[in-house]
Structures are given as structure tokens and as C-alpha cells.
User: Which sequence fits this backbone?
């Protein structure tokens, strides 16, 4: 459907993606124009997100997502009910473990205020493997203000996570 290009832009090595959507060429950069360092409240949200994910704290993770949110990756986009997402989390954790990932840490957060209710956050993560390798992952979120924090209403993984992990999974001995 489109091709992905990773290019260096200046010294900060921003990721540049190129997609053809309905015949229209669309370019965007994670961490691109208009993105700034996160406010304390956005940074706190992602610090909690990182902690909840590391602890597989299902109830706390659930509290950070809207009842239904949009999920997107290179394979497509679809609405996801929170209950289905929460039910899938233990399997996702097993997928990371099978690929030898011991920890995923937040490396960077950038934000763009879209309007008084919504913020676009671009995040970089490092998946640390048991063999010492560090696998970069990138995702973007649209956050909606709710009470004293935010909820995720749109979640975009910039790479096919299952494909990245499958490439790292130990191969069965066929000998």
C-alpha cells in the first residue's frame, strides 16, 4: 500500500514516512514541525503509562484509554473496545517475552497541542532484549483531556510490532 522511508533530517535523525493514501502522497515526520518538549502533565501521563505497562497493571492501563479508541499500524486502522484491548494485553506481554524483550523504556516524548481538549504526542521507546540489543520503537497518540489527566483516543504504532518481534524470536531447532 505505501512504502516506508527512514531518512535523516538534519542532526536529529527524524523519521520520515511516505504513504500513498487514495492516490494522494502524504508525508509526515514523527517529532516534526510544531512538536515541543512535553508539559509536566503529558510527561507524567507517559511516565505512568510506562510504569503501568512494565507492571502489566491492567486496571491502571485501562484507566488510560477511552472506552473505544482507534488503533493504527502499517497494517491498517480499526476501532478497539477497551475490553478487547485489555483482554489482549497478557498475550502481547507473552509475545514480547518470546522475542527476548525484558523491558521497554520510554526514550522521548514530544507534543503538539491540537486544541484545548486534544494533544498529539509522539513517543520513542527502546525495547531492551536479554541479549543486550536495543530495538527502537515509535508510536504516536492523540490524548483527550479527562478530569485531571488524559485518555488515549488514538494509538498509532509506526511499525508492525508483531513483525519486529517475530524477526527477533528464537528459531526452532530443525536439526
Assistant:
Amino acid at each position: 500500500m505505501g512504502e516506508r522511508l527512514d531518512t535523516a533530517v538534519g542532526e536529529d535523525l527524524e523519521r520520515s514516512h511516505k504513504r500513498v493514501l487514495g492516490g494522494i502522497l502524504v508525508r509526515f515526520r514523527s517529532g516534526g514541525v510544531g512538536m515541543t518538549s512535553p508539559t509536566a502533565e503529558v510527561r507524567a501521563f507517559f511516565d505512568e503509562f510506562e510504569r503501568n505497562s512494565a507492571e502489566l497493571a491492567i486496571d491502571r492501563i485501562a484507566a488510560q484509554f477511552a472506552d473505544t479508541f482507534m488503533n493504527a499500524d502499517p497494517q491498517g486502522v480499526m476501532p478497539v473496545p477497551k475490553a478487547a484491548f485489555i483482554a489482549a494485553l497478557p498475550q502481547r506481554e507473552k509475545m514480547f517475552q518470546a522475542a527476548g524483550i525484558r523491558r521497554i523504556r520510554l526514550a522521548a516524548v514530544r507534543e503538539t497541542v491540537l486544541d484545548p481538549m486534544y494533544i498529539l504526542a509522539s513517543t520513542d521507546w527502546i525495547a531492551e532484549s536479554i541479549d543486550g540489543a536495543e530495538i527502537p520503537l515509535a508510536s504516536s497518540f492523540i490524548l483527550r483531556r479527562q478530569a485531571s489527566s488524559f485518555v488515549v483516543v488514538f494509538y498509532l504504532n509506526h511499525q508492525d510490532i508483531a513483525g519486529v518481534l517475530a524477526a527477533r524470536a528464537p528459531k526452532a531447532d530443525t536439526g
Summary: The radius of gyration is 17 Å. Residues 1-30 form one domain. The helical segments are 40-55, 58-63, 82-98, 161-168.
